[in-house]
Amino acid sequence: MSGPKDDGFAAFVAARGTSLLRVAYLACGDDRDAEDLLQTALERTYRKWDRVRYDNPEPYVRRVIVNTAISRARRRAILRIIPTHAPPELPVRETDVDLRRVLMDALRALPPRQRAVVVLRYWEDLGETQTAEILGCSAGTVKSQASKALTKLRSAIGAESVEGLIRNVHA
After folding, report:
1. For the residues 111-120, what does the mean pLDDT come to?
2. Which position has the higher pLDDT, 171 or 112?
3. CB 36 within 8 A of CB 65
4. For the residues of 24-41, what is the DSSP string, one character each?
């Protein structure tokens, strides 16, 4: 039996699910993990739907996605700490490179907080204030994290490519 809570939540998921899945994918960089991340965020949102639905629920879900992605990345980073005697060899890039793949690889290499800022600021086209609210930090922190992230992306990809990739990523 479905009630008004179920109907409202189902309508929200139907309307915004694809956009939220994109945010989850960009936050973690993997299709399966993105689906799990979104499922976790929607489950947590459903439990609090009576309180969340009166405001705009999308920023709440985005915040849950980003915070969960950061928590998972921290846990995985701790599990990956294995001493090595020699650094692993880096793969050589082909001359005919899929720019989206290169950008996603560079994005995955960013620390979780910087990745979250880049996703929210540049993919979701949110302002500094909105991004700060979602991440629970100040606008200054968003600015500094974005600056550091773009510097890392420029060094990984090439300075001239980063701005073009960010502008054309929605294509």
Report:
1. 90
2. 112
3. no
4. HHHHH--HHHHHHHHHHH
